[in-house]
C-alpha cells in the first residue's frame, strides 16, 4: 500500500518540511543528523523513475516526517540546559 | 563597503525624535485635532534593511553553499565538480541555469536564507524564489527581515 505517485511539487514540499522539522530539534547532534539524512536520502533517490518505487519512497519519507515531528516535541520537553559546544558562538 | 554597512547598522539603531511645530509655535502633537497623527511612537516605517546589505548577505549565503552531490562522491576528483564558484555568484544569477544547482539545492538555499534573515517564507512564495535577484527583491520587500 504505497499510495499515489507524488507530483514534483509534493516531493519538494516533503523535502522542505523535513528540513524545517530538522531545524526545530533542540539537540545539536540530532538536528544535524536529521538534516544530513534528509539531504542524503533525497539525493540518493533522485534518479528513481519507476512509479511504484517513487511512491514507496515518498510514503517512506512522509512516515519519517511524522516521526521527526513527534521526536522534536519530545526532545524539546527534556532538553538539557547545557548546550553543545558546537553551538557556542564566541570562545 | 564596510563603511556603508556600519552606517546603516548604526542608523538602524538610533531613533532621533523629530519635533514638528505648528503655526502658533506649539509642538505639533499638542494640536487638538491633528496632534495625535504628528507623533508616531510605534512607527517602524524606515526599519527596512538597506538594499546593499541585503545583496551582500544573500550572496554570502549562496557562496557558502557547498553544492556537492554525495552520489557523485568517489575520490578527490569529485571535490573538483559542482562547487559554487565565487565568480559565478552575481546579484542576478539563476540557481539552476547559472549555478548548475538542482531543485533540492534551491530548497536548501531558500531555507538557509530564511535562517540568515530570520524569516518564515511560506511554501508558495518559496517556490517562486529560484534566482538571487528574486531572493533579494523578496527579502528587501519583507517587513520582518532582520
From TrEMBL, chain A:
GO terms for biological process: iron-sulfur cluster assembly. Pfam families: Complex1_LYR. CDD domains: Complex1_LYR_LYRM4. InterPro entries: Complex1_LYR_dom, Complex1_LYR_LYRM4. It comes from the Eukaryota. Residues 10-66 form the Complex 1 LYR protein domain. PANTHER family: OS08G0239000 PROTEIN. This is Complex 1 LYR protein domain-containing protein. It comes from Colocasia esculenta. The lineage of its organism: Eukaryota, Viridiplantae, Streptophyta, Embryophyta, Tracheophyta.
TrEMBL record, chain B:
Pfam families: PP-binding (PF00550). It is found in: Mitochondrion. Transmembrane segments: none annotated. The keyword NAD does not apply. It comes from the Eukaryota. Carrier of the growing fatty acid chain in fatty acid biosynthesis. May be involved in the synthesis of short and medium chain fatty acids. Accessory and non-catalytic subunit of the mitochondrial membrane respiratory chain NADH dehydrogenase (Complex I), which functions in the transfer of electrons from NADH to the respiratory chain. Belongs to the acyl carrier protein (ACP) family. One of its GO terms (cellular component) is mitochondrion. Keywords: Electron transport, Fatty acid biosynthesis, Fatty acid metabolism, Lipid biosynthesis, Lipid metabolism, Mitochondrion, Phosphopantetheine, Phosphoprotein, Transit peptide, Transport. PROSITE patterns: CARRIER. This is Acyl carrier protein. Complex I is composed of at least 49 different subunits. Pathway: Lipid metabolism; fatty acid biosynthesis. Residues 52-143 form the Carrier domain.
